[in-house]
Amino acid sequence: MKTTLAKNETVQRKWLLIDAKDQVLGRLAVKIANLLRGRHKTIYTPHVDTGDCVVVINAEKVKVTGKKEEQKSYMFYSGYMGGAKHVSLADFRKRRPEFIIEHAVKGMLPKNRLSSAMLKKLKIYAGEEHPHSAQQPESFQA
Questions:
Q1: Could you tell me which residues are beta bridge partners of residue 124?
Q2: What does the pLDDT look like over 44-66, one tens digit per residue?
Q3: 70 inside domain
Q4: Angstrom distance (rounded) from CA 39 to CA 91
Q5: Which of 87, 121, 97 is nearest to 25 (CA)?
Q6: pTM, two decimal places
Q7: Phi, psi (rounded to 5 degrees) for 94
Q8: The domain spanning residue 123 has which CATH number?
């Protein structure tokens, strides 16, 4: 039996639409990361980007469990002394709700050169509308 390895030129990508409304953040991020990597395909090859393009809508309505809404914080460091800044999840939900899902998915992708290419295929929008209707994304139940 011969093992076939996927090539980047022969991979056929689909566009998938995921509604994040009332989805738990971590479980949703795992499913999105697997779709971006191509783990759901039979031609999955770890060193080739075989994943699909994913459009996520309603990012502002994603659900978190426990007290994460108030207690979870994201840290940013400027590089200078005293330059650490902590921002809570509730503040991000008001200002930039797309960042919450993007940050969770980025942490679940491999830490190599492929991850940046995979993240470029992820499109996240806070509301219902998205500009990718020309690609005719298929609805995916996460």
A1: 56
A2: 999 999 999 999 999 999 999 99
A3: no
A4: 33
A5: 97
A6: 0.93
A7: -80, -45
A8: 3.90.1180.10
